[in-house]
Predict the structure.
Amino acid sequence: MPSLPGDSDFARAVEQTLARGGGLSVARFAFDPGNSRAQLDAARILSRLMRQMDFGAAQKDGSVIVVFAETDFRTAHMIARRLSAVMRHTLNGKHEMRSDPVVSVDSLSPSDTARSLLARLSADASRAAS
């Protein structure tokens, strides 16, 4: 089972969103495993660009997960595209290996749990990469 970003924070955000309604979306930014610096640089960039109500975490598989609170799929997709563009231009210096993130986005469904949402997001990323 995939690990959860900020286990208790993520689970709490999912539970609260399901209880009170509203939207919650998650984006996964995956990087070339051969470029270990990309994940750290991306996490630094994302932490500066995210809204106060969003949170994220670096994952053991080299990806970075960002949770967009009170955000529907369409808005999360737009935000993720913009964040990806900033990373693409910022991460790729003249002398560094190019490392464009592979981005997948999904939104919370009424039948979801924190684990099912993250598992679906990881499965979507695996399909997109193959």
User: Anything to note?
Assistant: The mean pLDDT is 80. The radius of gyration is 14 Å.
